[in-house]
Amino acid sequence: MNGPERHNARAKERPALIPHWIDLVRNSDILGTLYSDVPPLESVRLRSFHLDWRGPALTLRIDLPAYPDLDRVPPEWSERGHDTLQLQVQFAAVEDLTVRGWIPIVPVDISLAALPYRRILVRIAEAGFGFSFTSSDSLTVGHISSYRMTETGSDDVPHAFVSRLDTRLFTSLPGTHESSFFL
């Protein structure tokens, strides 16, 4: 193989990094109203993941690493002293799932790498925890809420939701049996 052919062969073997995860979100306007710059998926608190056999889909519930600017959030969030934004990120057409260990209590980095055929490789690696899968490169965010994190890091407190339906149905996170919330 000559120089260009060898370079192209290596480029096909190694997944390309995606510029920013929000570029893959089909309903990104929701976060665009809250953030002038949506934070990267670095140092996020991974709260849970849910597998849905009907998709096959996988949903991550995470706390973003930075809270929106106070001039972009509803006044009642500021009045309540909220400091954390939580949301669900859904991945569709999930394959090649690998889970090792248990969800860490420390923040994690979620890396996304582009694969051929509009797919991505998703990886989370932390001491004693490994999580990876491939999925479609079209993500959906939902169940966005704001709350004040406790000193212990718990999110088992009242939440204020962006969605009017979530606001009507919930004042805090519902139990995991609530299939309309944990998609």
Short description:
The protein has 183 residues and is an alpha+beta fold.
Outline the fold blueprint.
Elements: H1 3-13, E1 16-17, H2 29-34, E2 45-52, E3 57-63, H3 75-79, E4 84-91, E5 95-101, E6 110-115, E7 119-126, E8 129-136, E9 140-147, E10 160-161, H4 164-169
Antiparallel strand pairs: 1-6, 2-3, 3-4, 4-9, 5-8, 6-7, 7-8, 9-10
Report on the architecture of this protein:
Helices cover 15% and strands 35% of the residues. It is globular. Residues 6-11 have low confidence and may be disordered. With 183 residues, the chain is of the alpha+beta class. It has a five-stranded antiparallel sheet, with no helix packed on it. A five-stranded antiparallel sheet has the order 2-3-4-9-10.
Can you tag this structure with a few keywords?
183 residues; alpha+beta; 5-stranded antiparallel beta sheet; 4 helices; 10 strands; 15% helix
- Counted beta strands: 10
Whole-number mean pLDDT? 89
- The first-to-last residue Cα distance is 48 Å
Q: What class do helices, strands and sheet pairing give?
A: alpha+beta
Characterize the biggest β-sheet: 5 strands, antiparallel
Strand order of the largest sheet: 1-6-7-8-5
Apparent shape? globular
β-strand amount: 25-35%
**Helix segment count?**
4
The poorly predicted ranges are 6-11
